[in-house]
Amino acid sequence: MGNELRVGVLGFGAIGSVVARHIADGKVAGASFQGIAVRHLHEELHYPQFGIDEAVKCCDLIIECAGQEALREHAVKILGAGVDLLASSLGALADRGFAEQVRQAGPGRLLLTSGAIGGLDLLGAGAAMGGFQQVTLTTRKLPATLIQPWMSEAQCSQLAAVVEPVVVFSGSAAQAAQKFPKSLNIAAAVALTVGDWDVVSVRLIADPNATLTEHRIDARGVGGEYSFSIKNYPSQQNPRSSGIVPWALLYSLQQAIGNNRS
User: Fold this and answer.
1) Most buried residue, 80, 143, 161, 226, by CB count within 10 Å?
2) Is residue 240 very low, low, confident or very high in pLDDT (cuts 50, 70, 90)?
3) 195: helix, coil or strand?
């Protein structure tokens, strides 16, 4: 018991609730669930709750499931307290200033997860071999899930009413992650893996027939040419995210536990 990693979860939405329940039920070997880090106490939650200041005192690792704003607000404090941080909202790192603050923070480690996509191991190897000339991420989702607070009423209405696929966004990975913070954190995952935000371009397609969320990665570099196509069922609780995401975090947690023991 004393050798278990003390784990807390930041956020209790569609992703955090699955992650917390799985750890609390003892389904992650080597993890001891400490509770949920929240801003305000919630009477309906049956797990221990604490603020971020208490969380960094009782946890060895905190899993962020609360969105880009929460990662920006708490990452430096968590890492500075010597606590490892497993992040899901990687799009926050598109802000170069914030990314530099995180890089300099410590002694805690920032740990990343693959989230809703695959192929990152090969992309990482290709980056180490010599990098990429071009990486393109094409994502296809249901139109209603892509409506954003910054869109005008007319834009929202047009997007909700599309009857055939339409390109909603085309641009850099950094722009994509910032403009669609709940839908394109994967753009940040790809850019961070290849080590170059500028080489990754993103196309976001609203498709009324997209029963599955599709991500296609096409990359060309020193090591060769690669194409990956991933199709995930959306989360039933939050269709903006893929249902696989909490399980990707749990897998990354299990890997972190294994690395700590080796």
Assistant:
1) 143
2) confident
3) coil
Query: Is the separation of the CB atoms in 7 and 59 below 8 Å?
Result: yes
β-pair type (132-141, 213-221): antiparallel
Residue 234 DSSP symbol: B
Number of Cβ within 10 Å of residue 148's Cβ equals: 15
User: What are the CA-CA distances from residue 204 to residues 111, 179, 194, 201, 256 (Å)?
Assistant: 26, 11, 20, 10, 32
Closest CA to 204 of 143, 152, 155: 143
Would residue 46 show up in a list of annotated catalytic residues for this protein? no
DSSP string, 6-43: EEEEE--SHHHHHHHHHHHTT-STTEEEEEEE-SS--T
Catalytic residue among 40, 42, 74, 215: 215
Q: Is the dihedral of CA 114, 193, 112, 41 positive or negative?
A: negative
| Order of strands across the sheet that contains 166-172 | 166-172, 200-206, 132-141, 213-221, 224-232
The structure tokens listed for 191 are: 């850019």
**2: pLDDT strictly greater than 60:** no
Which residues neighbour 161 within 8 Å (Cβ) at sequence distance 6 or greater?
none
As a 3-state breakdown, the chain gives helix, strand, coil percent values, each rounded to 5, of 40, 25, 35
Share of the chain above pLDDT 90, in %: 84
pTM of this prediction exceeds 0.85: yes
